[in-house]
């Protein structure tokens, strides 16, 4: 059962939309390797806006994810790919079907 999650919204720099989409897709194996990441989605909202939505069974799993390799890789690429800092929100899951 999942109880908490993250919703991160990412705005690509002009001309970097495809690079950001590729970066997000390439992070899937890293998410798959995290035992407490129950579900992980890289999404495209519009031509320049992307996101990551993921859910966890506990706050500890969420914190481990935030301290993990996906977050580190995103922050390392932020200046190159993003037009503004990522908007990362912690969320509580009210109901889920996985």
Question: How would you describe this structure in keywords?
Answer:
single chain; 98 residues; alpha+beta; 4 strands; 37% helix; 29% strand; globular
Number of helices: 4
Fraction of residues in H or I helices: 25-40%
Overall pLDDT score: 97
Question: What is the N-to-C succession of helices and strands?
Answer: EHHEEHHE
Query: Kindly, what is the distance between the CA atoms of the first and last residues, rounded to a whole number of angstroms?
Result: 9 Å
**Biggest beta-sheet profile:** 4 strands, antiparallel
Sheet/helix structural class: alpha+beta
**Proportion in β-strands:** 25-35%
What is the strand tally?
A: 4
Outline the structure in words:
The protein is built from 4 helices and 4 strands, in the order βααββααβ. With 98 residues, it is α+β, with helices and mostly antiparallel strands. A hairpin with a 4-residue loop joins strand 2 and strand 3.
SSE topology sketch:
Layout: E1 4-11, H1 17-26, H2 28-32, E2 39-44, E3 49-56, H3 59-66, H4 69-81, E4 87-92
Antiparallel strand pairs: 1-3, 1-4, 2-3
Task: Report a brief summary of the structure.
By secondary structure, this protein is of the alpha+beta class. It has helices spanning 17-26, 28-32, 59-66, 69-81, and strands at residues 4-11, 39-44, 49-56, 87-92. The protein is 37% helix and 29% strand.
């Amino acid at each position: 059962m999942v109880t908490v999650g993250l919703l991160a919204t990412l705005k690509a720099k002009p001309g970097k939309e495809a690079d950001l989409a590729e970066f997000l897709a390439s992070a899937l194996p890293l998410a798959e390797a995290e035992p407490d990441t129950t579900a992980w989605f890289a999404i495209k909202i519009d031509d320049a806006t992307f996101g990551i939505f993921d859910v966890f069974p506990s706050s500890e799993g969420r914190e481990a994810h935030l301290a993990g390799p996906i977050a580190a890789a995103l922050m390392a690429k932020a200046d190159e790919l993003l037009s503004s800092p990522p908007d990362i929100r912690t969320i509580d899951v009210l109901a889920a079907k996985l």
